[in-house]
Amino acid sequence: MGKLIVSLSPHAHGTDTVEHNMYGVIIALLPALLVSFWFFGIGSAIVCGTSVAACVFFEWVINKFLLGNKRNTICDGSAVLTGLLLGFNLPSNLPIWIIIIGALFAIGVGKMTFGGLGNNLFNPALVGRAALLVAFPAQMTTWPKVGQLTSYLDAETGATPLALMKDAVKNGDISLLEKLPSLLDLLIGIHPDGAGSIGEICAVALLLGFAYMLWKKIITWHIPVSILATVFVFSGLLYLSSPVYADPISVLLSGGLMLGAIFMATDYVTSPMTPKGQIIYGVAIGFLTVVIRNWGAYPEGMSFAILIMNAFTPLINNYVKPQRFGEVAE
After folding, report:
1. In the Cβ-directed half-sphere of 253, how many Cα atoms lie within 13 Å?
2. 3-class state of residue 15 by DSSP
């Protein structure tokens, strides 16, 4: 029989619960979700709805029939949040059967294999996205244009701003950067060509979610700000070194950088515990993102940068340990 171990006082008391924080993040994602419906229409609804439903279903099945866990965890909001974030990282014309495979990887491999919420080493939604990107690279890198509200599988596609930036660096063609949307268009989500993933379309909507989570103290500023600042500085240095690199503001507003920095990298389980550790983590993610974007195989590097640093989180936590109560700093 297990023993109940009570640590010495003082004890910290709080009103936070898993449900409170999970549904708080979901609320913060609502502006971006509504904007995705406005720009992508039925495609966004199908992809996000399928992803959420599949993630909830797989968590229930695995808990009940494979793990024998009698406790119902599908109402704590974590499976819904994973499904929503996975949907946000997918194109709006992705076939349903591929979305379901991604949900299975996200929940079955990324989350439940490690023992469920609180035990996973990697962000589950990004595990699902990475698996789909490796297995279905063509479908995962075909980006519909905005404004096709009633189109789904037959939506017209185009090149994203990140793809233009990548080709400019690869081919040394400065003229490709002239095709980039204006900073205002990138900010509000007006893309004449391919728009990218569902959840990365509008930076304003994501920043509104960021402000809400800071207000509700769901997250702190350390990880998002350190990521964005590092990307700005590193990409700014590249921009000053050669005209083939895009300006740092366009880099910040393009692709899944805002989505990843605000909603993915800040995952409680897979990010460091201390502010100092979070800044180290964020700086490393920002640096890796710029490296992968410019010299990696894919135009977007945010997801892979976060997954790489997820693996280093235990080392960061071990290196930057919180000071014990009453301990005198050296």
Report:
1. 21
2. coil
Beta bridge partners, 144, equal 157
pLDDT in tens, 121-142: 999 999 999 999 999 998 898 8
Q: Which of 175, 142, 145 is nearest to 246 (CA)?
A: 175
What gap in Å lies between CA 101 and CA 24, rounded to an integer? 27
Closest Cα to residue 106, out of 128, 123, 76? 128
User: What confidence tens digit (pLDDT) does each residue in 270-313 have?
Assistant: 999 999 999 999 999 999 999 999 998 888 889 999 999 999 99
Structure tokens at 61: 């099945």
Structural contact between residues 96 and 50, judged by C-beta atoms closer than 8 angstroms: yes
CA gap 118, 115 in Å, rounded: 8
Q: How far is CA 130 from the centre of its chain?
A: 11
User: In which band, very low, low, confident or very high, does the pLDDT at 3 lie, cut at 50, 70 and 90?
Assistant: low
DSSP conformation letters of 61-102: HIIIIIS---S--TTSSHHHHHHHHHHHTS-TT--HHHHHHH
> What letter represents residue 107's amino acid?
I
For 66-86, b/e burial (b = at least 16 CB within 10 A) is eeeeeeebbebbbbbbbbbbb
In the three-class reduction of DSSP (H, G, I as helix; E, B as strand; rest coil), residue 143 is classed as: strand
d(CA 118, CA 106): 14
How many Å apart are CA 152 and CA 162, to the nearest integer? 23
Sign of CA dihedral 106, 110, 111, 112: positive
